[in-house]
User: What shape does this take?
Amino acid sequence: MRPFFAISAIILLSAGCAVNPVTGKNEISFVSESQELQLGSEQYLPSQQSQGGLYQVNKPLTDYVTEVGQRVAVVSDRNLPYEFVVLNNGVPNAWALPGGKIAVNRGLLVALDNEAELAAVLGHEVVHAAARHGAKSMERGVLLQGVLLATSIGASNSEYGNYIVGGAQLGTQLLTQKYGRTAELESDYYGIQYMAEAGYDPQAAITLQEKFVKFSEGHEQGWLDGLFASHPPSAERVAKNEATVAALAPNLRADLTLGTARYQSKIAYLKSHQDAYTAFDQANTLASSNELESALAAINRAISREPREPRFYGLKGDIYLEQGDYSQANRYYAEAIKRDEAYYEYHLGRGLAYTRLGNREQARKNLTRSNELLPTAVAMNALGELSLSDGDTQSAKGYFQTAMSAGGTLGQAASIAFTKLDLAENPSKYIGVEPRLLEGELTAIVTNQTPIPVSQVDITFSVTANGDRLQRTISLTELAAGQRLTTGSGFRFSDTDQVESISVTVTRASLQ
Ligand SMILES: [Zn+2]
Assistant: This one.
């Protein structure tokens, strides 16, 4: 009963042989360059949303990261429409989607010491895109499974991140995957070449790896589920980077830079507001353990330290939503949206608050906007309920069907809501019948294939025998979830009867 989502980019029709632009090796490829580009541009925005949205407070930082990224990308072996963004996410991490769409979390930026280390991070990600590592993972998946099915993945520190639905699931899957050891070493190796060619001192790639090893030994919070989940640091990587830099040494440019002063000046604003984000993280933790008053106190501290950060107002709205104070919730969602309109969580929260307040029009408007930014099962289910109470069954079915692709309790709830609506229209999809001849009587084995009890099930038996066409409908009062029973039709045949055709169909079913 799970819907099949046709994701255009993974309809793979033909395989070709191509030279990898970075390594120069011949390899079989199923995912064409145009598919890579399409995938990257389709998945970039939902992937940003699912990972915290853009860091907006200090836009010059994003401009700066873009500038460093482009400086490295321009010397890469593959001309792609590279883009770089800074995400509003405290987990130290960076990722690249196929087609050169790259992101770095603010949580990683504050851990770096100079521009060359940033170039090492971005160079590494540029290689992932240029050398088709994401595309190759998809191809491996395709080779193993025939079809790559997007599944629900918990990819974000956000409450709703587990419930991404539809095509956006694919992006989440791509950016949380592990490329494997070979791809990581390849990215380190060519990333170092690129950063050096772009004018950065490649020693920074070594100091960066050493720093990562130190953090991993100290089990630094955030790193293990962030960057280290996909990029395990190791003495091997440090040693390989040292060898790569040593081999480059004779041919290095004379004007290499670490860019420490420049980096420190660009990161100063974010670093000087770290205490605000620490208070925000505390508020998040308190809110998720339902200590709402303490969460409010923490988020107020964050806001007083950094009144320009939209995320803080969004969380304050979430806390009031949780407390059932919907007007206050809306007040703070509005403050968040005023500062950053393009982040789904504020619209989702406001849509839920308006639903509770009974303002259906505003509820629908906000939930729809939330889905435009990132489709979630939470918003789909809420929209489904709204459509249902408007009597618009068809729209409701559409929302529930989309929400079904999410895992967990929300996906299950959607699945049940959808089945309830669809059952009356298509009873034979849910109730199985198999005709049997039992001691001369035409019978049917009837199975309720749904996880819910079904009532008023009509089974229609049609028989053409001895030149007569006969029909009879048997009504069953109730079938429990998964129940299987045999029902007679009253039609009996002897050896002398000429039976031309028999059909048994479910003609009606409904729910209590
Ligand atoms: Zn990597």
Q: What stands out?
A: The chain has three domains: 8-270, 273-424, 427-510. The two ends are 21 Å apart (CA to CA). Residues 33-50 form the longest helix (18 residues).
